[in-house]
Specification:
Length: 149
């Protein structure tokens, strides 16, 4: 019997490598609180964002068509501050710096020990979700205080 878990983190995962998408489904679902929607292009991800609500985006950087940096720019212009994690094999300092400048919240390398890498990714998503939730609660409290005057 599946245990009840009231906290569900809706993740949109974008990567042009089907095996990475499949591994994310396996590893992140094992963690329990993740609902993952997987797509293989930034263009498809934008369509999903128009139709659904997501708490966090995980994206590869180098993809055909619209790359991850362009995708991040589009997300920041249209969706504001939704937490955005790059999950990439690119270790180029210029690309990483560009990701930070465009508003990435985290940049995690795919390379290395898979067990550690997936745990690191799951932990980053949890931390970003916690910050997002705390920020939303603070805004709600401020609205109540402002609205009562």
């Amino acid at each position: 019997m599946e245990s009840f878990n009231p906290v569900r983190i809706r993740v949109l995962h974008v990567d042009d490598e089907p095996e990475v998408l499949k591994l994310a489904q396996i590893f992140l679902r094992r963690e329990g609180e993740f609902e993952i929607t997987s797509v293989d292009s930034a263009e498809e991800a934008l369509t999903k964002l128009e139709k659904g609500r997501f708490d966090v985006i995980i994206s590869d950087c180098r993809m055909p068509g619209m790359d991850g940096l362009e995708f991040l720019e589009e997300v920041r212009e249209t969706r504001g501050s939704i937490p955005f994690v790059f999950f990439s094999g690119i270790e180029d300092p210029e690309i990483i710096e560009a990701a930070w400048k465009k508003g990435a919240d985290r940049y995690i390398m795919k390379n290395g020990n898979p067990t550690f890498t997936w745990k690191e990714l799951a932990q980053a998503v949890r931390e970003l979700m916690k910050v997002k939730t705390e920020g939303e609660l603070q805004r709600e409290e401020e609205e109540v205080v402002i609205g009562s005057y």
